[in-house]
Write a structure and sequence with these properties.
mainly alpha; 2 domains; disordered N terminus; 2 strands
């Protein structure tokens, strides 16, 4: 339901067949008053599109966070690998020195 201050901000009406029509003001409110405002029709194209956009943005943010987390894990693994390769080189040098 909308009050009188929002009745001119309604732009969609759904007919009996479920078709939605863009109109210059809230048709229901224009005829029957603010209580008859039809702009908040559940699942109107605009509401569905906005909900889809919001869900997509949230998914993108989740994926970006996951990417950042995995990149950090990869960097840690690479640093550990580098330290292990250096340690192996040091041990090979010590072992080669003991063999001579």
């Amino acid at each position: 339901m909308a009050d009188a201050s929002t009745s001119t901000r309604c732009y969609w009406i759904r007919d009996q067949d479920g078709a939605e029509i863009l109109i210059p003001m809230c048709w229901g409110a224009a005829i029957g008053g603010p209580a008859e405002c039809t702009c908040n029709v559940p699942e109107s194209r605009i509401e569905a599109a906005e909900r889809g956009r919001t869900e997509a943005e949230a998914q993108v943010l989740r994926l970006m966070d996951e990417r950042d987390r995995r990149l950090e894990e990869q960097a840690v693994t690479w640093r550990q690998g580098k330290r292990l390769r250096q340690k192996i080189e040091e041990l090979e040098t010590v072992l080669a020195g003991m063999a001579t």
